[in-house]
């Protein structure tokens, strides 16, 4: 009788993950990984996800929602007896998942650049028994991201408005900003530093990017910052393209090119 080979890896924070066989009943606490798991193993492999798991379309309507990325419903997860739980060092609070680690295998991602994104995809493919699918996806992403785009100018990328917060130099957002041709003026700071309007004025970036997530920047903020920061060019940008590190990376290269052309056409 055929028995699957046990799987043993270290996740991206160095924790041992051991499975007797590929996982097929998944709880995902990370929106970008939810999409990745669905693409690699099918939506039927996902038992539950967060209320921010908007991809694939209809995911939130068809799955048990176990709270947000910061405040998960641990008791609901425990009742599901998942084979594997996916979480993120950056997106999930440690205390929210610590006791889950004593009950179930938990894979923790820690992605700060494209190489680590590819490593994560490879590891998740192995854990799901979908190595070939993961390899194909990595090839597709690598094909699109072989060479950085030409330098366009300096920028500040905002993720939150009250208080104003930006992306520092040790983040995945920073890595993709550099790849897309933008010089992050807060590259010398870590994580997501809080800044002021006076900082923005003194730095005078060529571009101010207002992300669609986690703060949902819109036309009101676009008008406000455009009036306050002339001649800086202010744009609303798709936060998923700069911060999601799973299969959505297939679309980021085209998006960056589209954004560059939009900038070229700005008056």
What does this molecule look like?
- The protein is an alpha/beta fold.
- Helix content is 39%, strand content 19%.
- It is built from 11 helices and 12 strands.
- The protein is globular, with a radius of gyration of 19 Å.
Would you kindly provide a brief summary of this structure?
By secondary structure, this protein is of the alpha/beta class. The protein has eleven helices and twelve strands.
Ends apart, CA distance between termini:
69 Å
CATH class placement of the largest domain: Alpha Beta
Q: Round the Cα radius of gyration to an integer and report it.
A: 19 Å
Quick one: overall form? globular
- Low-pLDDT ranges: none
Going across the major beta sheet, what is the strand order? 5-4-3-6-7
E-strand count: 12
Tally the structural domains. Answer: 2
Coarse structural class: alpha/beta
CATH superfamily of the largest domain: Nitrogenase molybdenum iron protein domain
Could you spell the SSE succession in H and E letters? Answer: EEEHEHEHEHEHHEEHEHEHEHH
- Estimated share of beta-strand residues: 15-25%
- Give a quick account of the main beta sheet: strands, pairing sense, barrel closure: 5 strands, parallel
Q: How confident is the prediction overall: mean pLDDT?
A: 94
CATH fold descriptor of the largest domain: Rossmann fold
Q: Can you name the CATH architecture of the largest domain?
A: 3-Layer(aba) Sandwich
- The helicity comes to 25-40%
What tags apply to this protein structure?
five-stranded mixed beta sheet, 11 helices, alpha/beta, 267 residues, single chain, 2 domains, Rossmann fold, globular
């Amino acid at each position: 009788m055929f028995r699957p080979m046990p799987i043993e890896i270290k996740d991206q924070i160095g924790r041992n993950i051991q499975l007797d066989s590929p996982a097929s009943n998944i709880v995902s606490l990370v929106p970008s990984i939810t999409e990745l798991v669905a693409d690699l193993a099918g939506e039927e492999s996902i038992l539950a996800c967060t209320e921010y798991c908007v991809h694939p379309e209809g995911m939130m309507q068809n799955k048990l929602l176990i709270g947000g990325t910061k405040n998960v419903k641990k008791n609901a997860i425990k009742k599901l007896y998942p084979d594997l739980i996916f979480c993120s060092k950056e997106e999930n609070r440690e205390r929210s998942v610590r006791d889950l680690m004593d009950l179930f295998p938990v894979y923790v991602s820690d992605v700060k650049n494209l190489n680590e994104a590819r490593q994560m995809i490879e590891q998740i493919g192995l854990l799901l028994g979908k190595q070939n699918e993961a390899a194909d996806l990595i090839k597709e992403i690598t094909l699109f991201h072989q060479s950085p785009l030409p330098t366009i100018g300096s920028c500040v990328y905002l993720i939150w408005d009250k208080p104003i917060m930006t992306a520092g130099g040790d983040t995945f957002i920073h890595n993709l900003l550099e790849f897309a041709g933008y010089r992050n003026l807060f590259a010398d700071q870590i994580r997501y530093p809080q800044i002021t309007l006076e900082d923005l004025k003194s730095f005078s970036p060529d571009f101010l990017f207002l992300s669609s997530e986690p703060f949902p920047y819109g036309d009101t903020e676009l008008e406000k910052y455009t009036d306050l920061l002339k001649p800086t060019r202010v744009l609303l940008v798709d936060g998923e393209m700069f911060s999601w590190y799973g299969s959505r990376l297939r679309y980021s290269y085209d998006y960056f090119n589209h954004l560059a052309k939009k900038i070229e056409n700005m008056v």
